[in-house]
Write a structure and sequence with these properties.
Blueprint: E1 2-8, E2 11-17, E3 20-27, E4 34-38, E5 41-45, E6 50-56, E7 59-65, E8 70-76, E9 81-87, E10 97-103, E11 114-124, E12 128-132, E13 138-141, E14 168-169, E15 178-184, E16 187-192, H1 196-207, H2 216-220, E17 223-225, H3 227-230, H4 236-248, E18 255-258, H5 279-289, E19 292-297, E20 300-301, H6 306-314, E21 328-330, E22 333-337, H7 343-360, E23 364-367, H8 387-401, E24 405-407, E25 410-411, E26 419-421, H9 435-447, E27 453-454, H10 469-480, E28 486-487, H11 496-526, E29 531-532, H12 542-546, E30 551-553, E31 557-560, E32 569-581, E33 587-598, E34 605-609
Parallel strand pairs: 11-25, 17-18, 17-28, 18-19, 19-23, 23-24, 24-26, 26-27
Antiparallel strand pairs: 1-2, 2-3, 3-8, 4-5, 5-6, 6-7, 7-16, 8-15, 9-11, 10-13, 10-14, 11-12, 12-16, 13-15, 20-22, 21-22, 29-30, 30-31, 31-34, 32-33, 32-34
Helix pairs in contact: 4-5, 10-11
Length: 616
């Protein structure tokens, strides 16, 4: 049974069980005027606000009132912490970062390191769970000293801060070891379970989980997208040649996704007739070759587009207070923004997409953007929303209309039966948005309640860097046992060795697709992610709780990819049980740690529970 202990100066509430401290909540900015407590509630009156804590069913609820009073609280961070969602510098667990207090909202390349899929929930290896139901809210995690730089959100690189500093790494243990919550009418919920897995189950119980899966084909074979290889330099001949190259090099394929820029003006849903003189003929030909075809879509509208004119005329765009269209900055310029709270606007949007499908034969769409950072706080929509709700409405609408699709933003969208794509990865190796962050990112999103995660493109986006054959190989190996693979850069352009090994692992993914699909269906029943941290099988082991370079596919496949250049051996943490190396058939009995395990360039080290091949 949980016991409450309070102090007046400074004010604190401690949650204890059998005299073991579980969590302490503090407010030090003002003095308590009156404090009332019993075994299941605390009420503290301050000069500007009242704080109330009470036990409701099996969780504790903390609220502050009145709504116009801003309050800052801190919570100590014992144990290892998970949740939160996608970060740019994706460390695992969260104790390794120093995240400055800032509005918690979905971002495209956020100034503190926040990214597109956010969940306001955090849980610890000790079984503590914190859920922030108040929104908007500012959140800090293990904040750095005050003299650390504060970066601004910008599409320009100057002054934006390196990926490795967003969020900062707690290298010298100078973080404050606290969660910081700041906002109006705070609404925080706490619960305490026996371990991290039980806490995760309560997180899923709060936010829900999908009850259907994306189409099996999205798990089975790779998606090929034009973006990283061609950027905006695409046209009909390029797309058809790309398809022929994939077939010629004997790679598996499913979707060919036509990314930016296939239209004349953003917002108009018609192919540029100069670049794509006969899109239906092109898509018919791609269908004949065996591809399904999707196209890239955003909620932005160029002022020069006919869609913008129609949207303004009918009140379907986000507005200023005076009723004029609100032009927002995005990575390809400045434009109007679809009002996703307006049912007529959504009907117009999806009817035009359906019309394009009928005219051209497109099978589906890739939906980009939707982050809160693109929704101005003073913008006017048909229904009043805060910025994160823009993300929620957008993704919710997409998931109701399309299944052969992907999105890259999410706010309380755990129920959506679609793939959530990771933010654009850098062509690099590290946790700071490189190869390693693909793994920690999928773990983080899984622990935030999202089982269907689409890793970003193999090799990254080649914005400022160029991929090497080794990076392409190791990236493909990692993806081979993740839920899905997405290619854009062509492995065969990095030499014969890259072409051969990447093909081998693309086909290995096909071999394990039935298991992945079975695990996806399990996720719709239980909310358990497809990709699991190693602690899932050894929840009280310090090494498994902090392991950031291995993962479990279900409970019976342990994967230890190589995530660093020129590495030809690595240490591997083996959880309890008998584990057989897939390649050598050698069996290891865990728990144990193998040091210096051979991982030559052609080898992805992975292990199957003995006598359980193909079981979830």
């Amino acid at each position: 049974m949980i016991q409450l202990e309070t102090t007046r100066k400074p004010f604190s509430i401690s949650f204890k069980e059998n005299n073991i401290l579980l969590m302490t909540v503090r407010h030090s900015a003002s003095s308590v005027l009156d404090l009332r407590t019993d075994g299941s509630s605390v009420t503290a009156d301050f000069s500007r606000f009242t704080l109330n804590v009470q036990l409701v069913a099996d969780q504790w609820t903390l609220t502050t009132s009145p709504a116009e009073s801003i309050v800052e609280l801190t919570i100590e961070m014992p144990g290892h912490w998970y949740g939160h969602g996608e970060l740019i510098n994706q460390q695992w667990p969260l104790n390794k970062i120093m995240l400055q207090s800032a509005p918690m909202q979905t971002f495209d390349n956020g100034p503190t390191g926040l990214s597109g899929v956010m969940t306001p929930a955090w849980f610890s290896s000790n079984g503590a769970l914190i859920i922030a139901d108040s929104s908007p809210i500012e959140v800090g995690i293990n904040q750095p000293p005050a003299d650390y730089p504060h970066f601004k959100w910008s599409f320009a690189t100057d002054g934006r801060g390196a990926f490795s500093d967003r969020p900062f790494l707690n290298k010298n243990k100078v973080g404050d070891d606290l969660f910081t919550f700041k906002g109006y009418a705070l609404d925080l919920k706490f619960s305490f379970s026996e371990n991290a897995i039980k806490a995760y189950e309560k997180l899923v119980g709060h936010f829900g989980h999908p009850t259907e899966t994306p189409p099996d084909s999205l798990f089975e074979k790779p998606t090929w997208t034009t973006w990283a290889r061609y950027k905006t330099a695409i046209e009909q001949g390029v797309v058809l040649q790309y398809a022929d190259d994939i077939i010629k090099n004997e790679y598996p394929f499913n979707i060919l996704e036509i990314d930016d820029r296939w239209q004349v003006y953003y917002g108009d849903l018609g192919f540029d007739p100069k670049r794509f003189p006969n899109p239906k003929q092109m898509i018919d030909e791609l269908h004949t070759k065996g591809f399904k075809v999707t196209a890239w879509v955003i909620p932005f509208l160029d002022p020069e587009s006919q869609a913008f004119t129609d949207g303004v005329k009918n009140g379907w765009l986000v507005k200023h207070l005076d009723g004029s269209p609100y032009l927002v900055d995005w990575w390809q310029g400045r434009g109007g923004l679809l009002d996703v709270t307006n049912s007529s606007a959504l009907e117009w949007f999806f009817e035009r997409l359906a019309k394009l499908q009928v005219e051209t034969g497109l099978d589906g769409f890739k939906f980009d953007a939707g982050e809160a950072c693109f929704f101005p706080p003073d913008a006017v929509t048909q229904a009043k929303i805060h910025p994160n709700e823009y993300t929620h409405f957008y993704v919710n609408a997409v998931s109701k209309h399309f299944r052969l699709t992907e999105v890259r933003s999410g706010w309380k969208n755990q129920h959506a039966p679609v793939f959530f794509r990771q933010w654009d990865k850098t062509t690099s190796w590290g946790l700071d948005n490189g190869l390693h962050s693909v793994l920690t990112g999928i773990l983080a999103l899984g622990m935030a309640g999202y089982p269907f995660v689409l890793p970003d493109m193999v090799g990254g986006n080649e914005y400022d860097e160029k991929a090497s054959a080794e990076l392409m190989i190791r990236w493909t190996q990692l993806n081979a046992l993740l839920p899905s693979i997405q290619f854009s850069l062509a492995p065969w352009e990095y030499g014969e060795e890259s072409a051969e090994i990447c093909r081998r692992y693309a086909n290995l993914h096909r071999e394990y697709a039935p298991l992945i699909i079975a695990l996806a269906k399990e996720a719709t029943r239980t909310g358990v992610p497809i990709i699991r941290p190693v602690f899932w099988l050894d929840v009280n082991n310090e090494e498994t709780l902090t392991c950031d370079d291995e993962f479990l596919l279900g409970n019976n496949i342990l994967v230890a990819p190589v995530l660093y250049p020129e590495m030809r051996q690595r240490d591997i943490v083996i959880p309890p049980g008998n584990w057989q190396d897939h390649w050598t058939k050698r069996v290891f009995r865990g728990p144990m740690k193998i040091t210096g395990y051979p991982t030559p360039l052609e080898t992805l080290a992975f292990f199957e529970r003995a006598n359980n091949h193909g079981q979830g």
